[in-house]
Design brief:
Layout lengths: L1 E11 L19 E10 L2 E7 L9 E5 L4 E4 L1 E3 L11 H8 L4 H6 L4 H10 L2 H17 L2 E7 L6 H17 L3 E9 L10 H18 L5 E6 L6 H13 L3 E6 L7 H7 L4 E4 L5 H7 L5 E4 L1 H7 L6 H6 L5 E2 L13 H12 L3 H8 L1 H5 L18 E4 L7 H4 L6 E6 L2 E2 L4
Parallel strand pairs: 1-4, 1-5, 6-7, 7-8, 8-9, 9-10, 10-11, 11-12, 12-13
Antiparallel strand pairs: 1-2, 2-3, 5-14, 14-15, 15-16
Helix pairs in contact: 4-5, 5-6, 6-7, 7-8, 12-13
The chain binds N-(iminomethyl)-L-glutamic acid and fe (iii) ion.
The site of fe (iii) ion (FE) has 5 residues, from loops.
Length: 414
């Protein structure tokens, strides 16, 4: 089963070594080859090269890219794409002057989504989520992490995670599941946060592990949500059950999220809008990928994470969408790339690395995803002809993607 893509105007995000991440100054290299071919076999990349060295391949299916660019699919390492309904009323509340934290304190926000999710059946939840999964697939995402965290009691958290498992089994893109029971204190535990943390540690994590429902464990470690001490307990319990941490940290305040993430060898620490220079220092030599969520800063009108400082410090920064109904109702990774350039002053090449190889690293997937490298899974998209890769973030609302391929198979538009 061979696939030969010919007449590629720009083949981008190529790598012969099988990169695991790009750090600091290396992030400015997003290697390209003009007028190229790409050969895939059995769902993996096999080879690439210039069109004038096109190999003889009688047994391959030919796809003519007609001068379009080919890029590795986006790796979106942070989403909450399984949710019920929408929260545009809170959007209007924000326009009228309420902050995200105020809305949460009044019982809106995450608890609002938990109430709605409680009412929906697993089937309905799956259908709603799959509509969004198809949407982001067509926006170029080929690997995605999906969190629970709108259940906030054991039964509803398990319901969400079973929906995520079903997406894993049925959607053609790569899915990683993250248990985020500590997203907020469930309504039944209002005013009893310590008991809720006990429930997460003693009941939810073992139940999730027993069914093998999650790859990771997450905590919203921030002012008004969970403390670093509570986060540490949950991370430890997660690790004991084979789930590595991926933390929400330092979005709303300088609240110790980075420190607890690094100390517990979390795979990533995400948000970072309130990150300090000391946090950046702490992340050097750690195995934790700092992940900025520029769509969240944009939608909530908040500061952006200090991306240039992270890159200067040599860190392998990732960007992700944070697709969720409250703070970021968008999973458009191309737009996240544009925002990273426009608002965080990343070069287009840096932003594309952040959204591909470093996003894959933030999900522990970069051995197999995130670049066009021989042996990696053949997840890629074909764009309209573009003058250079800089055009991708520059044309910030142009839908440039024409065709998508996942595991070397072209996906038909429904
Ligand atoms: O990553 N910050 C915490 N959680 C989500 C928002 C969830 C919601 O508002 O529903 C986030 O932004
Ligand atoms: Fe989030």
């Amino acid at each position: 089963m061979k696939l030969l893509v010919i007449n590629i105007g720009i083949l981008a995000g190529i790598d012969r070594q099988g990169l695991l991440c790009r750090k600091g100054a290396e992030m400015a290299q997003f290697e390209t080859l003009e007028n190229a071919y790409l050969l895939c076999e059995n769902g993996k990349f096999l080879d690439f090269g210039p069109m004038d060295q096109l190999p003889m391949c009688d047994d391959a299916t030919i796809f003519d890219a007609q001068g379009g660019a080919v890029l590795p699919s986006f790796c979106d390492s942070h989403t909450h794409i399984v949710y019920a309904g929408s929260r545009e009323q809170e959007f209007v509340d924000k326009i009228n002057g309420l902050s995200y934290a105020e809305i949460a304190r009044r019982g809106g926000g995450i608890l609002n989504s938990a109430d709605r999710l409680h009412e929906l059946s697993e089937d309905e939840l799956y259908e709603q989520a799959m509509t969004r999964v198809r949407e982001v697939m067509w926006k170029g995402t080929g690997a995605i992490e999906i969190k629970s965290g709108y259940g906030l009691n054991t039964a509803d958290e398990l319901k969400m995670l079973r929906v995520i498992r079903r997406i894993k089994q049925t959607a053609p893109l790569k899915v990683m599941a993250n248990f985020l029971g500590a997203h907020a204190v469930g309504r039944e535990y209002a005013g009893r946060q310590a008991e809720y943390v006990d429930l997460v540690v003693n009941e939810m994590i073992p139940a999730v592990a027993k069914e093998g429902l999650a790859d990771f464990v997450d905590v919203f470690c921030d002012e008004g949500f969970f403390t670093p001490e509570e986060t540490a307990r949950i991370l430890k319990a997660g690790l004991e059950h084979g789930m590595r941490g991926k933390i929400h940290g330092q979005e709303l305040a300088d609240s110790g999220g980075v420190k607890v993430a690094v100390e517990h060898n979390a795979l990533s620490v995400d948000h970072l809008e309130s990150m300090t220079d000391a946090d950046i220092e702490m992340m050097r030599d750690s195995n934790t990928t700092p992940t900025a969520l520029p769509g969240t800063s944009f939608f909530l009108n908040m500061p952006f994470a200090p991306a240039r400082k992270m890159i200067q410090a040599g860190l392998p920064m990732a960007i992700a969408s944070d697709y969720n109904p409250g703070s970021t109702p968008s999973g458009d990774m191309k737009f996240a790339v544009s925002l990273a350039c426009i608002k965080m002053r990343l070069q287009p090449a840096e932003a594309l690395n952040a959204a591909t190889i470093n996003g894959a690293a933030a999900m522990g997937l970069s051995k197999d995803y995130g670049s066009i490298a021989p042996g990696k899974v053949a997840n890629f998209f074909v764009s309209q002809p573009i003058p250079s890769i800089d055009f991708i973030p520059y044309a910030y609302t142009t839908p440039i993607i024409r065709h998508i391929f996942l595991k070397g198979q072209q996906i038909a538009r429904e």
